[in-house]
């Protein structure tokens, strides 16, 4: 039978604590991406990445917004741009960045994969035409 030496468990605990402290500052990199807008209106069946969504849900990069046969959605982004989706639509948020104080860094990349939409530009289009 083998016994640990005195202080060995404390040493392992200290090493574990130091390892944990070394990764804590990087945990933010694994967090969910920042919200870039909201689903300001959802009627009928509306899904975000395959999950049923309701009015007020947050929009994030890479999301696909899908409206069902009776679905309609209004998406409002951080700069105020608005997208209205009709039934049977699939809309992909490929890229979006809005920095009020850095207009040259602003960008918006979306794609309507199926269906129909209306688009109302926001502050980004006015600041960087």
Strand order of the largest sheet: 4-1-6-7-10
The CA-CA distance between the termini, in Å, is 76 Å
Give the topology string: H per helix, E per strand: HEEEEEEEEEEH
Q: What structural class do the secondary elements suggest?
A: alpha+beta
Low-confidence stretches at least 5 residues in length (pLDDT < 50)? none
What Rg is obtained from the alpha carbons, in whole angstroms? Answer: 23 Å
Based on Cα principal axes, name the global outline. Answer: elongated
Provide the residue-averaged pLDDT: 85
Helix count, DSSP H or I runs of 4 or more residues = 2
Question: In what range is the share of β-strand residues?
Answer: 35-45%
The percent of residues in helical segments reads: 10-25%
Described by strand count, sense and barrel closure, the largest sheet is:
5 strands, antiparallel
| Total beta strands | 10
Number of domains: 1
Describe the protein.
16% of the residues lie in helices and 37% in strands. Strands 4-1-6-7-10 form a 5-stranded antiparallel sheet, with no helix packed on it. It has a 5-stranded antiparallel sheet with strand order 3-2-5-8-9, with no helix packed on it. The protein has one domain (37-127). The mean pLDDT is 85. The chain contains 2 helices and 10 strands. With 129 residues, it is α+β, with helices and mostly antiparallel strands.
């Amino acid at each position: 039978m083998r016994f640990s030496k005195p202080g060995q468990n404390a040493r392992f605990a200290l090493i574990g604590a130091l390892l944990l402290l070394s990764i804590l500052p990087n945990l933010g990199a694994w967090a969910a991406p920042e919200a870039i807008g909201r689903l300001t209106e959802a009627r009928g069946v509306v899904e975000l990445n395959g999950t049923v969504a309701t009015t007020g849900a947050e929009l994030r990069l890479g999301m696909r917004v899908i409206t069902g046969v009776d679905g309609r959605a209004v998406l409002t982004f951080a700069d105020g741009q608005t997208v209205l989706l009709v039934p049977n639509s699939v809309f992909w948020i490929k890229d979006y960045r809005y920095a009020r104080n850095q207009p040259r860094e602003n960008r918006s990349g979306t794609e309507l994969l199926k269906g129909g939409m209306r688009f109302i530009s926001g502050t980004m289009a006015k600041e960087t035409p």
